[in-house]
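fwd from M.: "can u put these together and see what the complex looks like"

so here's what she sent:
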Amino acid sequence: MAESLKGFVKNLEEIEEMEMDGGARIRWLITHRDGAPTFSMRYITIEKGKETPAHAHDYEHEIFIIKGKGEVTLGNEKKELKEGKFIFIPGNLFHKIHANEDMAMICVVPIKAAKLLLGD
Amino acid sequence: MAESLKGFVKNLEEIEEMEMDGGARIRWLITHRDGAPTFSMRYITIEKGKETPAHAHDYEHEIFIIKGKGEVTLGNEKKELKEGKFIFIPGNLFHKIHANEDMAMICVVPIKAAKLLLGD
């Protein structure tokens, strides 16, 4: 992927949106397909009343809430979310995010997860 | 760091802000100090007229613009930035971001860069 060595700027709207279990929607902004070696940045939106998948997996998430309000379940605990909150979810911790208002967030995963989830 | 295995939710304002070369300001939201194994999420603000350091390094950036307008220099090219744009900067590419309005963004780096930059 020689062209990735130049880097790039793209707009959110250029990226196809996919639906996740729970009704959240995801855009894979930067992945190994772009030449990213270590981690993958995704943009996730959740409509009021919908949520992200309720699950655990062996890789971590780092999430920043850009807009909206909701709550995250981390193991047995629930915490409130709003713009400016951020979340560290280590590997193997059960989690889901439920939207009480339309939400948008950045969610970063390791490249090994991107390859797994995108089937590469 | 046993407690990090529970994960956490924090607010931007809880994190100390540090000044960077060029006048941008950075908050290290999630790092190896929290138990993050792979990558580190930072929140960077740039006041109108100021900029991030102008440099190259051997690790990559993945950046999402949350608010404001400006321009990024990638090697010899300049590209316009605004809310919803995102940037992949591969290792060893010269770069800087200049703000034409007050800007805020998420910028992710590998943990090896976090350790280097935080002196750990």
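replying to her w this: Residues 51 and 98 of chain A are 4 Å apart (CA to CA).
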